[in-house]
Amino acid sequence: MPKVPILMPQLGESIAEATIMRLNIALGDTVVPDQEVIEVETNKATMGVTALCVGEVVEILVAEGVSYAVGSVLGVLEVTQEELDRTGEKAIDEVSAGVNGAPAEDVPKSGDDPEANLHFKTEDGGYHEPKRVEPSVQGLPVPTGKGGAHYISPRMRARMTELGLRAADISAITGSGAGGRVTVEDLESFLEHIQSWPRTKASPMRLAVADAMRRSWTRPLATVARPLVMDRILDHRRGQTPKPGPALYLLRALAIALAENPTTAGYLIGENVVHPRAFDIGVAVQVDDGVLVPIIRNADTKTLNELVADYNELVELARARKLPSDATQHGIATVTNFGTFGLTWGTPIPLPNETLILGLSAGVKKPVWSEQTGTFIPVTEAEIDLTFDHRVVDGGGAGMLLNRISELLQSPEQL
């Protein structure tokens, strides 16, 4: 019957070897596709090597605690010809013969070392020894991981499902498993430890906010900030009836700046940045045990005076928890005024479906040097903070956007 290899996979761009942590198979075992047959550890993560097809384990060629190069054969499966045809995998005999005649791309390799290629059959019918290597990192704490996320065993995942827990909920637990992995025993010990602690039931609003923030934090987020002199905004606001909220000035300036450069609020979808078709921007409103974000539609096409009535109505509806369902959907960015709580700086987090959030801190009286008078003059200064998805926007682009917003806010009568 045909035989196929279990290979040490390429576990990351800079990973050349991995250490065998645990063999989950024995000779004679039958494995199925995607079954984790061997657990390996690199200097970055603990991962699982999976079987590619249904077969019987006929060779185990590695030992626990030993490091092997990427591309080495870790074991051998005996499979049926039907399974080979179904999966498209190459039998060891086929690949061995291909060394002398097949195209190079058909020959599995380990980095640039031809000696670490798939170890082919020897003349006497055996196999070349897998290429052992000395680990490049020893004695360092290694985070667990699989596919870019924390690896959780099926048993652990089942227990977490019973308890309604997610990966973020166990991040504070010190793991005793391989590479620091959190085991079911670690989880049970932690739950017993906190059993007597006081607790309150989380509201649906709090759970919704928690879920949104978990999903938001799966992206690489960064924040830039700059000071903003508020005097012209405050002078303009005093002459308006009804008075626009300070966040509305930011919202209008953000909408104009994004309309000038839509890519900064785009979505990264595969290899494309998808630009927004409409500049619908939300405003964060604090409510009991959470935050609601009503959306101001087409904020780039209406003046500040045209937006103020809609803005004030939506804020009041949010505070009364009476927002219609469509009033909180499909925004492209959010503005938040955390200065209402007396805070002078912050790092707000954008919603999962948004690339940007713009925050305004509390205004503080400060002396600022005036070149015109040659003296210090008192001004009201606040900080504006822009948190962004770093996959879509770089620090320079975010800084230029923030500078443009600041520039627009110095002419509030034109908003």
What would you say this structure looks like, in words?
With 415 residues, this protein is α+β, with helices and mostly antiparallel strands. The protein contains nine helices and 19 strands. Strands 9, 12, 15, 16, 17, 18 and 19 form a seven-stranded mixed β-sheet that branches. It is elongated.
Instruction: Tell me the CATH architecture of the largest domain.
Output: 2-Layer Sandwich
Relative strand content: 15-25%
CA-CA gap between termini: 76 Å
Spell out the helices and strands N to C: EEEEEEEEHHHHHEHHEEEEEEHEEEEH
Number of structural units classed as domains: 3
Shape: elongated
As for the CATH topology of the largest domain, it is: Chloramphenicol Acetyltransferase
Largest sheet: 7 strands, mixed
Q: Which range best describes the helical content: under 10%, 10-25%, 25-40%, 40-55%, 55-70% or over 70%?
A: 10-25%
Number of strands: 19
- Helical segment count: 9
What is the average of the pLDDT values?
82
Structural class: alpha+beta
CATH superfamily of the largest domain: Chloramphenicol acetyltransferase-like domain
What's the CATH C level of the largest domain?
Alpha Beta
User: Could you name the ranges where pLDDT drops below 50 across 5 or more consecutive residues?
Assistant: 95-120, 135-149
Rg measurement, Å? 29 Å
